Each structure stands twice: as C-alpha cells, then as structure tokens.
Amino acid sequence: MATIEERQQVLTSSPSNRTGYHFQAPKNWINGPMYYNGIYHLFYQFNPKQPVWGNIVWAHSYSKDMINWKPLENAIYPTKPFDINGCWSGSATILPGNKPVIFYTGIDLHNRQVQNIAFPKDLADPYLREWVKPDYNPVISPDGGVNASAFRDPTTAWYGPDGYWRTVVGSKIENQGLAILYRSRDFLKWNRVKHPLHSVHDSGMWECPDFFPISTQPKAGFELSAGVDGLKHVFKVSLDINRYEYYTIGNYDFVNDRYVPDGSSPDNNTGLRYDYGNFYASKTFFDEGKRRRILWGWSNESDSKQDDWAKGWAGIQTIPRSLWLDSSGRQVVQWPIEEIEKLRKKEVVIYDKKLAFGASLEVEGIHTAQADVEVTFDLSSSLNNAEPFDPSWVDPQKLCMLKRAEEKGRVGPFGLYVLATGDKSERTAVFFRIFKESNKHVILMCHDPTRSSMRHGLYKPIYGGFVDYDIKKSGGKISLRSLIDHTVVESFGAEGRTCITSRVYPEFATGSNARLFAFNNGAKEVKIVQLKAWEMRKPLMNGF
C-alpha cells in the first residue's frame, strides 16, 4: 500500500505539463464518486509504483466543493483471495440508515473477475478513511456460463418498489455486449436475473455501465431509486473494442426489469456520446446536497508511454459536469459545475467585434494557458448562404478531418485558437461549421489539434460531433465555452449540447507564452456578440 507521502513523491518527480485545476494523479481510472454527509469522495484507480496500468488500488480523496481536493490513504487494495490480483472499478451506494457501501470488481486467485463489497470501518469518521472487506466476498461470482474474464464494473445499486436491490455488471457473450442484472434483498446474497437489463449485438465488451433517471429541469437530478412515473432513464456503456462511450435515452420497466431505448438515437457506437473526444470510463452520481446529477470522466494521455515514464504520471479527471435532459428529450445537456467559477481571477471582456474571412482577434490581458472562455457568435446575416450538407456525411469525426480549421467554408470554420503561439504555428482549433439541409441547418463542432505542438511522435486526433440545436430559432446565435488547462481542452457547444475533450502538448505555447484567439476562416462574416475570458487560479488542494 502506498502512503500519501509516497504518492506525493511520484507526483512531484516530474511536474512538466501538469494541469492546474483538473484533478489528476500519477495514474487513475474513474471508480465511485460519492456524496456523503456533506462531503464529496472520489475513489480512483491508482498505480502506486509506476505511471502505467498495473498494481491497481482504490485511491481516495475528499472535497467539500469538488474543486479543492485533499488526499486520504488508499481505500481498497489487494489483500484477500477475492481481490489479491487487483481491485478494479466499481461504484458506491448509500444504503438505508445512511450507510455507504462500495461495490467493486476484484481479480481473485484464479484471475477471475468477481464482484465484492466493502464498508466503512467507522461511520463516525467524517472522511471514511478506512474500509473493511468482509470475508464472505465475493458476493457475485461469474457463474452460469458468465465469461470470467469479461465481468466487471458493477453500477451503483438501486432499490425497486418490490423491495429488491438491483445492480448491473458489464460483460459480453462472444461479441454481444451485456448489462447483466442482479437482484438482492439484503445486499449480501445476489441472484442473477434470467435476462439482461439491456444488450446489443456486435458491440463487444461493455465496460463501466451506468444507468440512472434523468430530469428535464436544468441542472437538477434524481437519485437512482426514484420511482417517478414517466421518468426517462439514461443507459451508458464504455466500449472496450474502440474506447468510445455512447448512451441512449429510454424507459425503464420496473416490473419486468427491462430498459428499452426510445429509438431517438442509434443504440451502437454511432450513437450519442457525452463527449466526442478523449473521454472514457465515465461515471455519474447523485449529489443529494444540491439535488443534481454529476458526471465524471477520465481523459488519458495522448503522448507516449515513454513520456509518461518521464513525467511520472498519466491521466486526469475532466471537470465534473452537471447533467440533465434537454427540453427536446432527445439528448442530455452538460455544463461544468458552478463551483469551478470560484477559480476565476482576472477577466477580459470583448463586445461586438466582426470577423471577416481570414481574420483573427487576440484575447489579451490575461494568461491563457489556464483559462475559462465563453463566447457567443452571431451568424444571423450569413445562415442563408451556408453550404449544402451532403447526406453521406454521417460521421462527424471524419467530416472534421475532411474540413479542418484552415479549410475555407461559407459559414465557418469559426471559433477559437487555444494554446497558441503568437504566429499560430502551434494552436489547437475549436470551431463550428454551419451547413444547410432542406429546411434546417446542420451544425458541426470540431477539435483540430493537428497543429497543437511542434513535437514529434504525438497522437493528435481530430474529434467532431454534430450539434442538435436550432440556430435559426435562436436568432442565428451559438455559444462556445472552453476550459483550457495546459494539456487539456474541454469544450461545450451550444450551451452544453455537444462536448469535446482533447489532450494536447504544446512545445512553445506554454505558460505565459500561450495565446488565445477568436478566428473566422469562412467566407461569410461572423460577429462576436460577447467574449468573456478568465484566468484561472489553481485550487488550494488538488488531489495530492
């Protein structure tokens, strides 16, 4: 078991390229975030020995605002036959009597993936520093033909109207993704339900499944056992086969234990995503204190393993996001939690600036390597001149690769150059393009980091997503927000309807040398209605 001091030593061994206000550790993977008695807990996968996968334990930090984090001793680590070869991902649940429990995947003596539980040693300890793993574990084993090497990541449990607890474990049969459903009256003895909660052919292994009710009220949420008639549910999986996530919106039949997508989006890897970029193994939890649902995600490095060794760390958590159902009912909306605004320092505001073709406008007066920027663009005078949309353009990522930031269009590309040098030889482009299709507009949002760094050997994928947004109904206006933090850029288009995260590693656009520009490479003029940018301070505590 690694002590806090040992983790700090790993952390400080090579501080280059560390983020400033994102939670990060030498190695992490999302586990079970939890709100309990006024305190937020983040449990995450941590390798105390190396900045690569392996030797996995559940590290533990706590916070009162999800921004300032303080480390605790590791919560769970391999000690027993049911987890001696690893303590993998899982979730946290609050039982009656306000008693928290952790559900996690252990790798046993035979290298089988089994599901275990752990309880706080002392409920009077406000920080829940020590956890006890009962010897009667595992509580769920891969019996009855379940693939013991593909059986992991139990969800937060929910309580049904019939008096049974339920949880889902990710799995597969050949290439069919499965959410295997289990029920229990006492949280100790679990029985497999004959049918899965949900399954999809040709989707491969389902990792980190998540299932929860969702509200249309902005920034509001429901706890998992809410039995409200007509309430929509979200079902999300992380696809091991391609490292994407996707989700569907549908209905949950409490009586028959079936989740049925409503068909508004594809139920496969071409469907809706929380984030169309570097974002995986996400997990939500219900924040009882503020009655909202919070989404956490993991963003891995996209430089090399050798770089990870040199830095001494790898991987970050994205900024926690409030999540709710869009008023259309077709998708979720996400927005950085309001607490992040406490980190804002010096502010710069720009009003009513027009950008002609090829124009750029530098945002001056603040350091922008660690910043929060919000901008609203007005395209009302240009929408009728948008280029036609080709129906064969079904893959937004490929379309962003075809029509990059420097590729001239009619309405767009327009947006932001972030983490840029003064001459823009290094820059990451975050932008929109607008197309016309019969009686509506199609909006494409892209991250183009192909010129993000002069360094060689970096993975610099272009990401893209379509934006489900009626720009004409909105008066021709569309918003963009980007959280910039040295090696990560998180962007939120059209008030959080489409989100993209990228990891970038500038060689020259670092620290005080990083610049920020608004730009337009479209033939039609774009107006900046308002741009606000804030320099961001570091949290007082950040995980370590």
From TrEMBL:
Keyword terms: Glycoprotein, Glycosidase, Hydrolase
The keyword Glycoprotein is annotated on this UniProt entry: yes
Keyword Glycoprotein: yes
Pfam family, one: Glyco_hydro_32C
Glycosyl hydrolase family 32 C-terminal domain location: 339-535
Family under the similarity heading: Belongs to the glycosyl hydrolase 32 family.
Protein name, entry field: Beta-fructofuranosidase
